[in-house]
């Protein structure tokens, strides 16, 4: 009998908000298709809460130690980037969550498993309950941890990632779909409303710089950049501090007399802020970069960390969608030049318009549902064929 209500299990991780945001975006598009039996599991947190907390702290610490020349995260990323998916390193990392993954599958009995974090995949021989496994690669660079022979479909951001996968791994060519990276629907809404909002306000985006405080490993770098810009450039600056309460309080005090500097804490409407900004200073996370592309928002990146962020930044720079600065003064000069030359913004926004592929989350969900539908029809036809 055809299952019209598939059960979907999304496996993710809380190392940064990006993977969780991708999972939430996919959840939204399943709900839009009236598929409501969808569960998101932070697998590492569920399997090893103490170890998960430790790994999160170690990851956060790496951003500071990299400034001192001890970039252990970057080293580990590049050392394992081309490792065999079945090698000892990958087997160990995947083994950390394998037991919890099997328990979750046995309990929830999903029809489809979607990885938004590179955990590895449970093979059919390891799991009594058969489920198709799909992987959403959330960066603009490829790492071997994403690869597993039992993955049914990989959803990737670019043709370059697809080409590299085909070159490096046998048997994956027919498993790859170039969709882009899923982002939350609010960004598409904000992109559609941006021209109307500008017309209603009677103004263009003007010179509005949006800065994400998490970009700056050293607090004083952020303070220096703001001073360099407000002292020499007529522009508005909005700084989003997120959950960095101490940074929010210090910046609010430092720039209390500067009306053109707006300091915010945690915000839920970051899409609205991006939609009315002329550019963004941010880290090179795959999801943030994808959000900026949808809103055609030029990107500035300061000293990207080794690993996927550095590779993401290089890809965006090479494709004319971002600029990279190695220090604060270079970043300030890039921003001043950008604000004084509208042709630069037009060129970057044009590159982003050509790069944008559509609604990635919707494409992925539709493809998964089509795959499940075809699989169920094939099983039904087989049962009819062998029935006495």
UniProtKB/TrEMBL annotation:
A single MF term (Gene Ontology): hexosyltransferase activity
Native species: Paenibacillus rhizosphaerae
Domain named Glycosyl transferase family 28 C-terminal: residues: 219-336
Boundaries of every Diacylglycerol glucosyltransferase N-terminal domain copy: 19-183
Enzyme category, top tier: transferase
Record bears the keyword Transferase: yes
SUPFAM superfamilies: UDP-Glycosyltransferase/glycogen phosphorylase (SSF53756)
InterPro entries tied to this protein: Diacylglyc_glucosyltr_N, Glyco_trans_28_C, Glycosyltransf_28_UgtP
GO cellular component, one term: membrane
Keywords: Glycosyltransferase, Transferase
Any Pfam family matching the protein: MGDG_synth
Annotated localization: Membrane
Residues in the signal sequence: none
Record flagged with keyword Transferase: yes
Single GO BP term: glycolipid biosynthetic process
EC nos: 2.4.1.315
Superkingdom classification of source: Bacteria
PANTHER family found in the cross-reference section: MONOGALACTOSYLDIACYLGLYCEROL SYNTHASE, MONOGALACTOSYLDIACYLGLYCEROL SYNTHASE 1, CHLOROPLASTIC
Name this protein carries in UniProt: Processive 1,2-diacylglycerol beta-glucosyltransferase
Family note: Belongs to the glycosyltransferase 28 family.
